[in-house]
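Service request form, structural biology core

Requester: graduate student, group of Dr. S.
Request type: structure prediction, single chain
Budget code: on file
Notes: please return the result as structure tokens.

Sequence provided:
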Amino acid sequence: MKRVMINTNSVGLVYRKNEFKRVLTVGNHWLGFGESVITYDMAKIFIATTELDILLLNKDFEALVTTVEVADNELVLVYQNKNFKQVLTAGKYAFWKGLNNYSFVTTNLDNYEIAADIDKNTIEKPQLAGYIRVFKVENYEKGLLMLDGNFEKVMEPGNYIFWKNRTAIQVLKTDMRQLNMEIIGQEILTKDKAQLRINFSMQYKVTELMKALLENKEFDKQLYVSIQLGLREIVGKMTFDELMENKERISESILNICAGKAEGLGVKLVDCGVKDIVLPGDIKEIMNQVLIAEKRAQANLITRREETASTRSLLNTAKLMEDNAMLYKLKEMEYVEKIAEKINTISLSGSGQIVDQLKQIFVK
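Core staff response, request fulfilled:
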């Protein structure tokens, strides 16, 4: 015989040869030969070492616990004293009565949406991380919710949390802002067989979400190809000189040609333009030579104009001096002054006649 004491808020389960026999509550008890006791703290979650259904056959044990059964397609959220404690999957569970107040929320996993009565803070608990799927639609995006490959609804910006179940969930998203697309290094032949490399830039915006994401696969790649082909079509109809003189025509033509195709993709073309036209080495050299020749011709023309203007000015001056003796003398004095500026000293020799001769320079 062996005496055991069961404390307050504890329960003892008596076993003999691994077979459950009876329940011991608060107080002193005697154990028979070959019996042992497992003591459980009622403040803690009950974890059975024996099949729970066997324990529940005992009326005393059944009266001490609350049982919860969870089906294969269910989850049960356990709250202890109104605080989330744990999540239960398929199976049967027992919780001690009396000391703690337990409540249970059962959710059916056949429905992917989380019920409104489940608090968002509970869903974000680490214990539930393995049972939920989280999707985020940024504030500049919109999305389409797909269930088992079928469209369900449009998703506005926000965070979305769904239960993990057999339903395949996919969220198709796209940026709803104005976007830029670069079409780089397109090698194209002009009408006169000049090979050019063109860099093109385009701005577009998604306007019809369903068309862009459901009715078309990879709408942005399709848009790229449409612009690429349109660019080749337009440049191929222009000669090199026409292209260099009317680059803005390319943008206008692209918008006209590709606007309808873009609309079919759920996209609106906002603007586009040629960024660069890269010339092959031989054409670049020829263009440089042409430019140099043009600049030289312009320089020669300007020089001839200046020479003509200067000659005309001299002719007009000569005519004026021919008709006006005083003007002639003033011009002589101007040249004498310019000469005198370059002379530091003047030495005179001879009689006073030299002075008279100098005076005569300024007197007719």
